[in-house]
Each structure stands twice: as structure tokens, then as C-alpha cells.
Amino acid sequence: MSVHPQELPGLGPVAGSAPAAPRRRVGSALGTGWILPAVVLAVWEGAVRAGWVSPHLLPGPTEIVQTLIGFGAEGLASHVLASSLRVAAGFALGTVLAIAIGALVGLSRRAEGLLDPTFQALRAIPSLAWVPLLLLWLGIDEASKIALIAIGAFFPVYMGVASGFRDVDRKLVEAARMYRLGAVALVRRVLLPAALPAVLTGLRNGLSLAWMFMVAAELIAATRGLGYLLTDGREMGRADIVLAAIVLLALLGKLTDTGMAWLERRLLAWRDTYDNTARD
């Protein structure tokens, strides 16, 4: 069983740790979070109906809803499912590799000196720059799409894991060694809990980039998916289809990020931070 960074076996709270703060009120934040989107949608719809903008270039929200309904439940579900499965597969692959390599780099200065400069250089390469190479290596099937999504998810998770382990408070490690914790116990009971905030932040960022890279992946040669809808709408001159795909991407991205945020709150409920206090 892992311990919090504030505690070590046989010690109780480490000096300087504070009692747990009350959990912030999430319900009110969720309630007010819809105000801005609702205002934007209302102004948008009003501007279209008043003729201030061309409905051909910027269809109103009601027309976008009608476009989504026109796809039908089965057709819409097939596009959403195709994109979601690609994101899930790519994110899982990129995350597994990022956690393994990031932990190695974070725990070993030799590994950091050997691997980190290369990964920092690769991180700067834009997503579309990988497309020709992946097409040459993997063809136009699912493998190239999943690989591109995995590349997008890899670097934020790698950065979060590596920096999380690297920035663990030295006093925690020294106290653990005083109690003769072995290497495995040190990682499991001290380093991993202390690095968890950075790791979870990296996972959230990696999931967001996985959705972004999914669009680039489906621009390669897809017959289903939200990226395909973007391309199809552009080729047909249908701004409503393009905006419908963008709305679906926003909703799916927000839904998955909300799930990750919930997991983060559950796993990090022990932290005594300003975010966990009752804020105005």
C-alpha cells in the first residue's frame, strides 16, 4: 500500500505538512461553466438570423443541430466510434511507452543524458511532418493513424512522468532511506505518489493532443471518423458539416478531459493545496 508524500512508514506526518483542506465545491463550477457557451451560442444564432453573417459561411447552431440529426443515429455513431477507438488505441500505446521511458529518464541521470536531448528534439516536430513518413512505413491503413496519435500522446506524458520523478522533494527520499526502504519500495511508496500530480497532468495533456493528432491522422485516408467529416465538408463546401464535426470534437474532448479530471481529483484528494480549498 502506497503512502502519501507527507507520510513515511513509522513516521506519521512529515514536519511541515498541513492537515487536509476541505475539498473545493465542484458543483458550482460545473453549473457556471455553461454560462459562457450558452451566451456565445445565443449571440451566434442571433447574428445569423439578423443577417449580420452569411449562413452559408457560418451556419447557426440550430442548422448544425439539424445537420447532426440528418446523419442519423447509426451514421453519427459510426463516425464517433471510429475516431474514439483510434484515440483510445493511440493514447494507450503512447502512454505505455511514455510512462516506461519517462520513469527511466526521471530516475536515472545517465538515461536522462542519453535519451532526453533526442526526445526534446523530436517533440518539436509538427504532427503533419510525420504523415509522409508514416505513410511510407505503415501504409494508409489503421496502423499509420494509430501511430500518429501515439506520437501526439507520447510527449506530454513523457514530460509529465520524467519531470514528476525528477522533481520529487529530496527530503522525502532521504527520510525514506533512513528507514531502509529498498529501491522498489522507494519508488512505490514515495517517488510514485510524490510524482503523481505531474504524471496525471501529463496524461490529461496527452489525451488532449491525442484528439488533435486524430484529426491529422484521419486526414490521411479515412472513410469514417470526425476527421473524415471535416474533409468531406470542405470538399462539398458544406460549412455546417465542418462545424458539426468541430462541435463533436469539442464535446468528446471535454467529456474525456472531465473523466481525467475526476480521476485526478480522486487520486490526489490527499493533497493540501489551494485548489482543494473552498474558493470564491
From TrEMBL:
It is found in: Cell membrane. The chain crosses the membrane at residues 26-44, 87-107, 119-140, 146-165, 186-203, 209-230, 242-263. It is a multi-pass membrane protein. SUPFAM superfamilies: MetI-like. It holds the Pfam family BPD_transp_1. Keywords: Cell membrane, Membrane, Transmembrane, Transmembrane helix, Transport. Belongs to the binding-protein-dependent transport system permease family. This is Sulfonate transport system permease protein. It comes from Paracidovorax wautersii.
